[in-house]
């Protein structure tokens, strides 16, 4: 499924493309792996499971280092992998819930770029602060 989805005739060419530009290849692979996992492909499920556990563990390291394990805080999932795989989302939520019981997990509703543009728009519409002249 992977070579076909990326327009590669075989694994050798795919390996060459990965070595030349992994940032082009790996994001495109996620949807293929997620679809295969949803279709009960055992290798794809293992890849998704292992990757999700790793991501959740990284999040929990940050939570612990910030001393937030027992605090209530928002944990917002942001990025291209979220919202496309029920398995990934549910498993990540489970890892977070087991390590930070009071975390409020949600998915980012708008992209960071849209949020920044909205803030910039509001700032341009705000009245300028009054200037004071020193004595």
Rg, rounded, reads 21 Å
Give the rounded overall mean pLDDT: 87
Q: Report the major sheet.
A: 2 strands, parallel
What order do the strands of the largest sheet run in, or round the barrel if closed?
A: 1-2
Category from helices, strands and their pairing: mainly alpha
Task: Determine the N-to-C terminus distance.
Answer: 75 Å
Structural write-up:
It contains 6 helices and 2 strands; from the N terminus they run ααααβαβα. The chain is mainly alpha-helical and 135 residues long. Strands 1-2 form a two-stranded parallel sheet. Helix 5 (86-99) links the parallel strand 1 and strand 2. Helix 2 crosses helix 3, helix 3 (22-38) packs across helix 4 (42-65) and helix 4 runs parallel beside helix 5. The longest helix is centred in the middle third of the chain and has 24 residues, at 42-65. The radius of gyration is 21 Å and the shape is extended. The model has no long low-confidence stretch (mean pLDDT 87).
Topology:
Blueprint: H1 2-5, H2 11-20, H3 22-38, H4 42-65, E1 73-77, H5 86-99, E2 103-107, H6 112-125
Parallel strand pairs: 1-2
Task: Give a summary of the structure in a few sentences.
This protein has 135 residues and is mainly alpha-helical.
